[in-house]
Amino acid sequence: MSAASELREYTDRSNSIHKEYLGNPELLRRYEHFVDWQLNYMLPFYEDLGATEDRAEAVKFFVSDLTGIDISERDHEFAKVVPLMSRMLPDKALDAVATAMRLNARVLGVNLSICRELYKEISIDTEITEASYCSACRRASQLEECLELVHLTAEIGRDLDQLIRIPMIGLTLRAMRLPARLAGFGALQNFLETGYRTFNALEDVHQFLDDMTVRMTEVFTQIFTKPIQ
């Protein structure tokens, strides 16, 4: 499958998943509560990896921007510009965006499945616990699937590291800022700028990616194998 076809397929799949919860007020309420809890649960696992300012921003980008938090508007905008991206982006950039959208669709699918399993056992007014979360994860997914997503995340990180080395890419993104906002693509522009700024600021991208891969593997292994109290 070409990168352009992959980008179209996973953008459509992502937006289809968004429609599932955006069109259901009760599911939307549950999903927003769930992803907010999950982010607050996950971030402390990576706190020591964000000891410096550049790494702190990179951790936030990986755990939040890249993996499914508050992204429905961005994905809706992506669908509008896929044809233009397919024509205008260099192959390396198009490959990176397509891989990112593949990760996006898969993470969304896993998150929504976990959310649904979670609220089969508890009500929206019941506090989510580590035990109820881990139990829902194990019913909705498998460790192997989550580790695949970890490696896909690292692959995207390496792609982004290559992209920031393209001459003039930073100036190009800044030049796009006002036109993108005027055209209604502000969320997408913010994502692209955040990704560029985050990786451009990292002193050692490869070491950061190695550290994140090890830590994410440890976190998911714990979620799926630690005895539930």
Secondary-structure element string: HHHHHHHHHH
Fraction of residues in helix = over 70%
Largest sheet, in brief, is: none
Q: Estimate nothing, just give the exact number of structural domains.
A: 1
| Subunit arrangement of the protein | single chain
Textual characterization of the structure:
With 229 residues, the chain is mainly α. It has one domain. Helices cover 79% and strands 0% of the residues. The chain contains ten helices and no strands. Helix 8 packs antiparallel against helix 9. The longest helix is centred in the middle third of the chain and has 31 residues, at 91-121. The radius of gyration is 18 Å and the shape is globular. The termini are far apart. The mean pLDDT is 86.
Which descriptors apply to this entry?
229 residues, mainly alpha, 10 helices, globular
Give a quick summary of the entry.
It is built from 10 helices and no strands. With 229 residues, it is mainly α.
What is the topology?
Layout: H1 3-22, H2 25-42, H3 53-65, H4 72-88, H5 91-121, H6 130-140, H7 143-163, H8 169-182, H9 186-201, H10 205-225
Helix pairs in contact: 1-4, 1-5, 2-5, 3-9, 4-9, 5-6, 5-7, 7-9, 7-10, 8-9
